[in-house]
Amino acid sequence: MKMKRFAALIIIGLAALGVVLFGNMMTPRPGSSSGNGNPAILLLIPLGILFLMLVYQWIRMFKDLKMPFSWLSLMILALAGYILAGYGYQLHRLEIYREILAEAFQLRWGQTDWDYIESITSGGLLSIHMNNQFFNWNTYFMMIAFSLLLCFLYKLIQHIMNRRQGTSADN
């Protein structure tokens, strides 16, 4: 049974990776026109479903695992730290991406329009130029870490509830 759960985790993880990398491929080349709208927004639907399936599979995978309160707390803090570090890294990569866009505009038109660069990189998911910032390896691993964080938070809440009821001190 554990092997089936592990296989399901791998399949869901690979499917989510495929969706993330497909979204990354939807980013136009720096300096090129982008058209209207961002079709990658539609990828959030299957990605959201896969994320929920991933959380469910993690919970099923670790259902019978007995972890002390201190280990659960440590795992939650480590995962939260990883997610925060990943967010900081994404902000750093955004600044590098803006510089890449500036160089591309300088090469193509002989000048850099910082107002335009700021506008296309500040629109969040609505800007197709930001797909490579939202759909990349770092955000994929942040999603995996967040799904694990939710799983361990669930186990922590379960542990606290069991402790209050006096049913288990080891869960």
UniProtKB/TrEMBL annotation:
Any idea which UniProt keywords this protein has?
Answer: Membrane, Transmembrane, Transmembrane helix
Instruction: Look up the domain of life of the source.
Output: Bacteria
Q: Does the keyword Transmembrane helix apply?
A: yes
- What stretches pass through the bilayer? 38-59, 71-89, 137-157
Q: Specify the protein name.
A: Uncharacterized protein
Source organism per UniProt: Paenibacillus lautus
